[in-house]
Give the backbone structure.
Amino acid sequence: MSIRKMNSADIPAVLKIQGELAFQDWNERQYEQEIKAPYTYSVVYETEGNIVGYAVFHLLGADSELLSIAVSESAQRNGIGSKLLQAGLSQLDLDKSDCCFLEVRENNLKARRFYERHGFTLFGIRKKYYADGENAALYRTENRSDIDPSQKGV
Ligand SMILES: CC(C)(COP(=O)(O)OP(=O)(O)OC[C@H]1O[C@@H](n2cnc3c(N)ncnc32)[C@H](O)[C@@H]1OP(=O)(O)O)[C@@H](O)C(=O)NCCC(=O)NCCS
């Protein structure tokens, strides 16, 4: 069981998970581009030689973004999504000005609950954002440098 950087050889397994969950429609080329981009941090979770989850982040300091995270249905609710999310967030300095944004379908309550449990805060709804007309819920990590020090409880 381990988290490691995604490489080109992982893309078929990643596409298989994406297809199984039907939540996104990136193609092989898009994953290839992400792997090569210098600001992308993409990881897979491997267990007994099988990839069961992955995540793709853009690490851009204050404008970092989680673009994708998924765990194969049969492996969900075992903490794997949390580990993948943490792997990306640990690359940021959330105590300073770094911040991670994400958007998720408004009706994806499973993912929204997952993000909220990991400290993401809803800051807006983008109407009819997706091609099928569904709204996007916009989340961000709390920017702790914005908080009045007297409210930090430290
Ligand atoms: C979101 C996702 C990555 C979470 O992965 P995971 O490995 O199940 O996550 P973890 O086991 O670390 O955390 C599970 C937590 O997520 C939330 N969650 C997961 N499944 C849930 C469900 N069916 N109903 C409600 N909450 C759920 C809960 O808070 C849960 O904690 P709990 O088990 O203690 O109640 C996974 O559900 C997934 O791949 N979903 C489909 C793809 C997707 O929608 N991705 C996000 C959009 S980009």
